[in-house]
Write a structure and sequence with these properties.
By secondary structure, the chain is of the alpha/beta class. The protein contains 11 helices and 17 strands. Keywords: Amino-acid biosynthesis, Aminotransferase, Arginine biosynthesis, Cytoplasm, Pyridoxal phosphate, Transferase.
Amino acid sequence: MTTHPYDALMDITARPKAVFVRGAGSYLWDDSRKRYLDFVQGWAVNCLGHSPPAIADALGAQAKRLLTPSPAFYNEPSLELAQALVENSAFDQVFFANSGAEANEGAIKLARKYGSLHKGGAFEIVSFEGGFHGRTLATMSASGKKAFEPLFEPKVSGFKKAKLNDIASVEKLINDNTVAVMIEPIQGESGVWPASDQFLQELRVLTEAHGLLLIFDEIQTGMGRTGKLFHYEHTGIAPDIMTLGKGIGGGVPLAALLATERASCFAYGDQGGTFNGNPIMCAAGLAVLEEVKKPDFLKAVTETGLLLESELQKVSARHGLGGVRGRGLLLALDLKLPIAPGIVAQAFEAGVLLNAPQVDTLRFMPALNVTKGEIAEMIDCLDGILTKAGAARRVA
């Protein structure tokens, strides 16, 4: 194996020493030529798998035409992608960003600008315990992640935390300073905890009754992840603002802030960014959207998600574990024991990439075009690890 200069990178997370050099579909290869089946996919980023030809071709073609003219000018891919998103959603305007955190930061700013114009300076946003909206100071403040609470104080004020699926806890926090409610339809980082469709519908009724904006953070659930192009489509309602990231770029840094005409109130100079709407990234986004919006593609995501859910339920039943949570191809298995990190480590050694958002939870975020055979391969690996773990516990 090649010796790599690991120390040059800031040590901000525990990483195995393997260095990945190639990817194709559901598989990655490291510099020792070991192959890994990837059920993380960059945290739900690579919706079409690793290095899909559609994205590679779009990037190559656009790179030969135009890298960036600066955001002070229009470029064709950004105009085309914005129009395509509007035509396929409930929104009227789009602002492109480079990361989910940046899109969510923009949503917070847009809501506060709306409050200053239309609600007497209202600025508070109700978000949720267990939520995760990013790592800027404002998005960390909006998040309900316990590990964030002591970090980088003082935080940005103006965020109150309600309880997921508890409409009374939301209503109790609303006052004259409230301008919006911000929610992940499925809380990914806290362990894949879904907001019920009924709760999201109740939020829409409540926010409309109080003249508040409803913001859906679909960074993880958007772009077909739950079997619809956007998760809100499952509910029969639409928010005023939605953010996209991860899957929209299919592996390149692209995100988006979408808003209705009523909520779109930025003036010149309020929002911007050097690489926002970059033609290279937007060309990739167009390639992703063209594939994901196909009815047969979304139907396959639903069917494959049900298969994965069923197989995980069988594993749970065999090993006396907990339930399976989530929707489509964003699922979690409750292990009922703090053994998730050990399972992830053993799976890595066996050539399968899994994720443990909590010590008792495994999260599954495969490519949206994952095959039945690849699901079977992952399940066999997980089943084998759990069988050995169960035997070890019985001996102990």
